Amino acid sequence: MHPYTATVREFLARHIRGHQLQDSDDIFALGFVNSLFAMQLVTFVEAQFAVTVDNEDLDIDNFRSIDRIIAFVTRKAAGPAPEPGP
Amino acid sequence: MSADAAELRAYIERHVEPHAGRWDREQHIPAAALRGFADTGWLGAIAPTAAGGRGLGAREFGRVNALLGAACSSLRSLLTVHSMVIHAVTRFGSPAQRERWLPRLASGAILAGFALSEPEVGSDAAAIQTAAVADGDGYSLTGGKRWITFGEVADLLLVFARTDAGPTAFLVETSLPGVRRLPIRDMLGVRASMLAAVHLEDCRVPADARLGKPGLGVTFVAQSALDWGRLSVAFGAVGIARRCLAVSGAYAEQRRQFGQRLCDHQLIRRMLTDMLVETRAAGLLCERAADLKDRGDPRSLAEVSAAKYYATRAASRAATDAVQILGANGCSPDYPVERLLRDARIMEIIEGSNEMHQLSLAEHALHPDPTEP
To answer: Is B264 an interface residue toward A (CB < 8 Å)?
Structure first.
């Protein structure tokens, strides 16, 4: 299990009731996310993992599942992709 | 009190408080007064310092709203919506949009409004009907917005319209062809906030008028801006409650009936006590919410909602009791409490009706956050 999984799952479980969330479950498609919670989720990601969710990152795809959130955080923590070499 | 806060307090005492009753009766704040307030720099309270703003955080911004709200909810409502737009541009704008708009918003050279509500759409913001259709290298906007605070005079509106991708935010200059504004008068309260209905008829905006990604206008842009709006309204309500307490307390000490001062009657003392405690509680809720917001804590959104809910109810109760304590004088324009009562009622409706906040907060009551003490 990824070290971030438990943290993300615990946060989501506080807001999503009556559903055993799988790592790949699409929380937007399942109807668990209202617009207030979407902002809470972005704020959580920024605060918990010390990353900045830039304008271009504000894409539902980055937040729709535990897997996607962890992939996004991992990518942001690694910094920008290196420029292609000569 | 910081030097800046003392300066703001002095400005309000001299230039706002003495005129707020007249502005309310005339349902209008003169352009010179709006310009004067813009020139203080407080309209740019939360704008980045790099853009000429004051760069305040949530707590300091909230306190500005409490000071202003105690004197004039209408002028405070300008600070609310103007700041919501500043936040939206700062958070979601491209570098070019930030460079273009923020310096002018921060200085108050232009005034901004927040155009989300429609005749048939209030709390259910995702159901907006105003349409934005791709048109060449831009968009054509058509639809109607209503209850737009300072919509009568705003130079720039943050308009939410539906694209193929869903609700999307646009920065629309009101000078553009296709924008028509009709003043709305005779509202219950906040009567000098120069409300307008805004009609958009094939209003063409360039592609760079779009703020944020298509389809995320309500989910991210509006919600994020509304969080600042709710904080502003919550602190503004604390200002109303404080003013009610100050006015009715002073009145109760001076007024004599049955050979006693009003404040020596037990029933009056009970009202003053409730007003005092609820005002303090509202202030503390607001301070806590703002502190969480300044720390980027995800609990802040719910806490801002709780603060708005409680503070606006407390303001209404305080204003109701203040009018009661002042009796016939409280119902007359010779004292500010009748205006404070009318304004407080509006606060329970705007930036999410209190019933919407109840529905949302009930979830936290049913499922408490284990990280809360």
So the answer is: no
| Domain coverage including residue A34 | 5-77
Contact B298 A55 (CB under 8 A): no
CATH superfamily of B3-110: Acyl-CoA dehydrogenase/oxidase, N-terminal domain (1.10.540.10)
pLDDT digits (tens, 9 = 90+) for B130-180: 999 999 999 999 999 999 999 999 999 999 999 999 999 999 999 999 999
pLDDT at position A85 over 60: no
The three state secondary structure string of chain B is CCHHHHHHHHHHHHHHHHHHHHHHHHCCCCHHHHHHHHHCCHHHCCCCHHHCCCCCCHHHHHHHHHHHHHHCHHHHHHHHHHHHHHHHHHHHCCHHHHHHHHHHHHHCCCCEEEECCECCECCCHHHCCCEEEEECCEEEEEEEEEEECCCCCCCEEEEEEEECCEEEEEEEECCCCCEEEEECCCCCCCCCCCCEEEEEEEEEEEHHHEECCCCCHHHHHHHHHHHHHHHHHHHHHHHHHHHHHHHHHHHHHHCEECCEEHHHCHHHHHHHHHHHHHHHHHHHHHHHHHHHHHCCCCCHHHHHHHHHHHHHHHHHHHHHHHHHHHHHHHHCCCCCHHHHHHHHHHHCCCCCCHHHHHHHHHHHHHCCCCCCC
Nearest Cα residue in chain B from A46: B296
B271-280 pLDDT tens trace: 999 999 999 9
Can you give the CATH number for the domain in which A47 is found?
1.10.1200.10
Interface of A with B (CB under 8 A): 11, 14-15, 17, 35-36, 38-44, 46-48, 55, 58-60
